[in-house]
Amino acid sequence: MIERLRARLSRPLHVAGALALLWALLRGLPVPTAVGCVLGFLIGRAPLTDLWFLLTHRLTGVRLLGVTYGRGRGLWCGTVAGVPVDVRLWPTSSVTLPWALLPSRAPRLRLWLGSTGMVLLHAGLGFWLTTSATALARGTGFGLLFSFALFALTRGRSLIWSLWPVFVLPFVGSEALVHELWTPHGFEAERLLLRGRIPEARTKLEEAPLAPHEAVTAAATALAQGRYQAAEELARAAVDHDWDNGTAHSLLGLAVVGHVDRGELSPERGAARLAPALAAFGQDDRAVLRGVLPAADLARLTNDPEAAVHAARRLRSGFRFSLWPALAGCSLAAALIAAGRPEEARKALARARRDCPELARIADVERLLQPEPKPVPEEAAR
């Protein structure tokens, strides 16, 4: 309940801050101070914490699964020191940094030091600038403090980018981190999977026993190889144990969609089995479902192909790295086929193949383009 409330606080607080700044300007606040407030807020909103994390994450035992900067059309996708990197056309104020915590010596102390350093940098810089002699610097300090207040109010229990490791982690047992730790081979498998190197990811997963929450990575690998029954079972195990529920529910839904695309389930039965997987996101919450790939497939299976095309196309441009854009490209192609636009579907599949050549779903959707065999007349059969 508290975490859901935190998520809803962000927008009202942004609006309140903007209105307060406008009111202060009308009451005679110097323009340089107002400009500094905006500048400080933009710096503190993401770039400051992103920079701190990039500089210190290895010291805290955290490793990067990938790095994404920008939005829109992809400019470059590759690896830097083994880390998948995706650079998009339009600049943004923040960097997307998916991460994993690996076993290390004194993990709680290292996480505490990293998080405390970030808090001191953010709040300390804000307080120091508010005492400056210039209006622009004072405004920047106020903006940093406002972004820090937002950070404190809206961030939940996270090992980084929250106050939880600063004030709570030192007083809980070491078992608090057990469900957060990745195995080295599970971590490498997730990196390989994000880059579309599916057989290598499966080989890594088979090297040694996995951490329980890495069932999500195993489910995604099985899905990518077209082992839909195994993917469904692994995703369901992750859902039952509440490990990474959002991704696990998406994988569960995509496994059902894979059965439909392969002809193992009718669209009607597939839609009926998809509904429980999407219920976890709130089936009436369209804002949430816009970011859930199986929701686009559900629209197709319930005879709304144009809505499916729109949703899959938006998701195709929003997903990072090679695997997920390729999956979204397959959903887009299937929706285009259902909408009677086969040439566009072929282009979508070609793009998915460029993104992730080894994705099994591409061949499954390609079969949907083939005309159904005409029934043989009884006379000819005799």
Q: Beta-sheet strand percentage?
A: 5-15%
Widest beta sheet: strand line-up: 1-4
Instruction: Give me the strand/helix succession.
Output: HHHEEEEHHHHHHHHHHHHHHHH
The level 1 CATH classification of the largest domain is Mainly Alpha
Q: How would you sum up the major sheet? A: 2 strands, antiparallel
Describe this structure in words.
The chain is mainly alpha-helical and 382 residues long. The chain has two domains: 2-61 and 104-179, no CATH class; 182-366, Alpha Horseshoe (Serine Threonine Protein Phosphatase 5, Tetratricopeptide repeat). It has helices at 2-26, 31-45, 47-56, 107-130, 135-154, 164-167, 184-194, 198-205, 215-224, 228-240, 245-261, 267-279, 286-289, 293-301, 305-318, 323-338, 342-355, 361-367, 378-381, and strands spanning 62-64, 67-80, 83-96, 99-101. It has a two-stranded antiparallel ribbon. A two-stranded antiparallel ribbon has the order 2-3. The longest helix is centred in the N-terminal third of the chain and has 25 residues, at 2-26. It is globular and about 75 Å long. It starts with a helix and ends with a helix. 38% of the residues are buried. The model has no long low-confidence stretch (mean pLDDT 86).
